[in-house]
Design a protein that fits this description.
This protein is mainly alpha-helical and 411 residues long. The protein has one domain. Helices cover 69% and strands 0% of the residues. The chain contains 18 helices and no strands. Helix 1 packs across helix 3, helix 2 runs parallel beside helix 7 and helix 8 packs parallel to helix 10. The two termini are 41 Å apart.
Length: 411
């Protein structure tokens, strides 16, 4: 096929796709949200009949929709220039490849440069408008609500009754993380189409899921997120709204702790009293031991090599061992330079989100998701488990870009 023929075919394809740009944008944003959260629910017993990996499936759908958008308007790729800082981060992350060994290490590298890299880069092309951000936040809300409802049904009819809230086939962190994300999206982005009483009911439901799951990092993340949004809102003289939201959440959390499952309530009460428990103690040991090794290994020990270099086993009997703090993890496994640059990029993303225009309600949602995901990443999961954080970094840097030819409102 000659060059003119190829251009003719592309032009025909563009003309065929162009009327469907709004549908493609919606598909891309929706599938991107499901891709980010698929790891939280794809192991559920209710979905065990599905013969393929949901993360890969949603990634493929999102990628195809994004490709269609780029075919219609190649200028969308210019948005990727806003991701130069994140590109630098992933280039520096490559330092950790050299010390990586077969097994968890190689698997970690493959996931880092596929799903996690996609999570960081996709927002510049498909989630850079107010409308697509709004749809993404609503996707987070719906997933969190659905998983909370499923978990409550399993809790109510379980025999024996679970000691902490969870979706059958998954662990408690699943409900905790998705409920916290739903709560952050709900608080930060008022859903104007919903009745006020319905919004309060939805907030109470996801808050109950968060507390009953007994997952501490997401709870702490929600508290920090409310504080950050409140601090930002204070400059807009919204003290009464801030006080109402804070009081409502405080009362809701207190009530739910009193009536929640015994293990969940016990974990929260112990933590409030300064007792971090067995899991928390293991993580603190991992933090301190990792910092000691970081001081001895400026070039990093290699991705996935935590268990070979750090004399702490956070989860006994598991091959996947890591620091449970993304900054320490990067410093330890990729080296000092990648760790420092990554930390600086996170701070820059936070500053970008805080300074972004306040006339768009979805900006609050981006800031909320970024703060929440960062707090969770500082206490839970490895670098790939926290791909919502990388997506939030991309969304923050994409806030001021806009997308040529988009149907949404650029901001």
């Amino acid at each position: 096929m000659t060059a003119p023929q190829a251009q003719t075919q592309i032009q025909r394809l563009r003309q065929a796709i162009e009327p469907h740009v709004p549908e493609l944008e919606a598909t891309a944003a929706l599938s991107f949200g499901l891709f980010l959260l698929a790891g939280s629910f794809k192991q559920a017993d209710l979905l065990s009949w599905i013969p393929f990996d949901l993360t890969v499936a949603f990634l493929a759908i999102c990628g195809l929709a994004a490709l269609g958008l780029v075919v219609v308007d190649p200028r969308r790729l210019r948005g990727l220039r806003g991701g130069l800082l994140l590109t630098l981060v992933f280039v520096l992350f490559a330092a950790g490849i050299f010390g990586s060994e077969p097994g968890y290490g190689h698997s970690k590298v493959i996931r880092l440069y596929t799903v996690t890299l996609f999570a960081a880069g996709a927002p510049f092309v498909i989630v850079a408008t107010a409308e697509t951000r709004r749809l993404l936040l609503r996707t987070f809300l719906v997933v969190g609500l659905v998983l909370a409802v499923v978990a409550f049904v399993a809790y109510a009819f379980g025999d024996p009754r679970p000691r902490r809230l969870r979706v059958p086939g998954t662990n408690e962190a699943t409900v905790g993380r998705t409920a916290a994300l739903a709560l952050a999206a709900l608080l930060a982005m008022p859903l104007r189409s919903l009745d006020r009483r319905l919004r309060i009911a939805l907030t109470g439901l996801v808050a109950a899921g968060l507390v009953f799951a007994g997952s501490l990092a997401p709870m702490l993340g929600v508290m920090v997120t409310v504080a950050v949004l409140g601090f930002r809102g204070a400059f807009r003289v919204e003290w009464r709204a801030i006080i109402r939201v804070s009081a409502f959440l405080a009362a809701t959390f207190t009530l739910l702790v009193l009536v929640g499952p015994i293990d969940s309530a016990g974990r929260i009460i112990q933590f409030a009293g300064g007792n971090v428990g067995e899991s928390g103690t293991a993580r603190l040991d991992a933090f301190s031991s990792s910092v000691e090794v970081v001081g001895q290994e400026p070039l990093g020990i290699g991705w996935g090599e935590f268990s070979n270099e750090v004399e702490v086993e956070v989860w006994e009997g598991f091959d996947r061992q890591f620091a449970h703090n993304i900054v320490i993890e990067v410093l330890l496994e990729a080296g000092w330079v990648p760790g420092v640059v990554f930390s600086a990029v996170v701070v820059m993303a936070l500053m970008t989100a805080v300074r972004a225009g306040r006339e768009d309600e979805t900006v609050e949602g981006v800031l909320a998701v970024l703060v929440l995901a960062l707090v969770i990443a500082l206490f839970s999961g490895d670098v790939n488990d926290n791909r919502v954080l990388f997506a939030a970094l991309g969304m923050a840097f994409a806030l001021e870009l806009g997308v040529p030819g988009s149907t949404g409102d650029a901001s």
